[in-house]
Amino acid sequence: MTKFHVLGFPRVGAQRELKWALESYWAGNSTQNDLLNTASALRAANWQRQLDAGVDYLTVGDFALYDHVLNTSYLLGHLPERARHAHNPVDQLFLAARGRTPCGCSASASEMTKWFDTNYHYLVPECSVQDEFRLQPDLLLQEVREAKALGKPLKAVVLGPLSYLYLANSKDGCERLNLLPRLLPLYSELFALLQAEGVDWLQIDEPILVLDLPAPWQQVFEPAYHSLRNNGLNLLLGTYFGALDDNLHLALSLPVQGLHVDLVSAPQQLQPILDRIGPYKVLSAGVIDGRNIWRADLKAAQELVQNAQQQLGERLWLASSCSLLHVPYDVELEAAPQKGVNRWLSFAQQKLQELALLRAALDDEQVLHSHAWQEQQARVQERRTSLLVHKAPVKQRAAQAAAQSWQRTSPFAQRAQAQQQRWQLPLFPTTTIGSFPQTDEVRQLRRRFRAGELDTAAYEQGLEQTLLESLRIQEQIGLDVLVHGEAERTDMVEYFGEQLDGIAVTRNGWVQSYGSRCVKPPVIFGDIERPQAMTVRWSRFAQQHSSKPVKGMLTGPVTILKWAFVRDDQPWSATAYQLAAVLRDEVLELQAAGIGMIQVDEPALREALPLRKAAHPAYLHWAVNSFRYAVSAVDDSTQIHTHMCYADFDDILPAIEGMDADVITLETARSANKLLTTLAQTPYHNGIGPGVYDIHSPNIPAQADMLGILRGTLDVVPAANLWVNPDCGLKTRRWAEVIPALEAMVQAAADLRIEA
Ligand code: GLN
Ligand code: ZN
User: Mapped to the 3 state alphabet, what secondary structure does 701-723 carry?
Assistant: First the structure.
């Protein structure tokens, strides 16, 4: 029999139980025991789903209260020193992640960054030359013991030593690889412990094997893995998010009992692997997409793995391409069919069933005639041909846009003059990124509107009230360029998804973004049209009620694409130009409504960068050009802003320059020096506002710290181009945090003006 398993399961809970439990614990409204009980109930529910579907191994160790990389730091006794004084392991995790605990400890929060090219964030491990490691297996073993009670063979999951170090930051310039000899014995120790617990397999994830690895990292894999002591625990080397390519030989040469590969993003690697896998190793074939939500074409999957099955027999396992962390729980939780697309969707629960069905079909041809199989394939076919999906004029316009290079009418210097004449902004203008706290009142308003207790007029009046209050607050604080606050948006992508044809939003399709924070990516299923203006009403209203400029606020094509579940039946670039086309129309309508500053956020531009360098130029071309297509039709005096977060900007600074926005605001507070170094090497010529404080932490930033950052920035940015702003939007903060923080920021800008 062919076996199947998943690489990991979502952990927030089908109803986001973990989110509520975490936030309640952090707010001091429940005990740590309550939280831990919720967590163990969630694990039990996940295992039950896997048992019901008939997996051959239960996956354990994929759960995390906050983040699995943070868990690995804990497992290895390698939490940042400053987090270790919290009273217990759980609070140590939170102290490291958030910079505070309910028991009142505080420390600076750890840096957070995107997990490969996903929208999930991990807590970056910190390395220094004198670091020691010490195995702390208690949290993992506790989960193993819970799972053991279910009587199924177990497969534990950990992040492998090389990926752990590679994903870490060096705090003191130490060479991370030098820490490897200290780290490896802990893995040997862990193997023995897991084996003693009766665990069958350990999935040891080394996703960095799909990256362009520097030679020293490549070379260290073999000796490292050969030095691990292992008396009989089966190791499954986990790779995902791309092709092994130049690391394929390497991956196959390691002394492990099995290899998992992603055949959704890289089906072409199957044959070369089969050619070289040898007579003993298990191949876990990731054929069900762990990153996207489309019903799988099981016929195609079956054909793909047929040879593998013949060659490997029982050594072939079927699997999700990666952890199911990146998809929601269950399509069954969606109520009414959204724009008719529910039938085409597959979330974690459905993916388990798809794996079971595919396994059944591989083992027994009769299954191809079953109702389940035929229904699955009928749905796949339906999406291919549906008129909901295909609209010729939309495809045409996008194709034409893609064939041209778009530019503003005049170069930056000339536009800057026209804009300065129009706005008369002070040196170092202050602004924010767009959103303001989504307060209980705003949420309440939305809830009542959805429940039908408020009609549209009353709802919009409530939002207007909120907007006006936020304008008054901004004016009082003394900000130079205002925002309307985005109270009408639940989410910067979903808001547009709701209004555009060709995009559906889900009711309950939550995916973890970081910690307790979840996002609900819309589903781009078809060609995109804009039935009517999406933001003009709010932006016009805001501008009419302030004498200061209020930025219009849109989400850029790449970000909508990257933070949505994207159709997989055409290249991303085609979808991006379709999005850019509707944004271009919106931008012009904003301008016509008197909005003179328009921000088009592209926080995901860097994150959407392909993992392999060879694919960068093609991506950057369409990403940058589609942005320019969206914004380039405006007058010189209309100021185009953009915003980006979480970026190692060094490799894309030329592309950012190519976007040619008049002003860019950037996330930097958690890695300020890096950006400054980059800017020193590659000067940036347009307006730029490196974030002066970290909005992810509830701590109020000190004026002096911000002033320090600004002074440093002036070494690499011409004074006339420097903007002053926080790192990112403020929707997750409370007004009580936002107001003093922004007051201090405005004061820091004022101090800087005096010095300048
Ligand atoms: N304008 C958005 C906001 O302020 C930008 C958010 C983001 O960059 N993720 O919320
Ligand atoms: Zn941001």
Answer: CCHHHHHHHHHHHHCCCCHHHEC
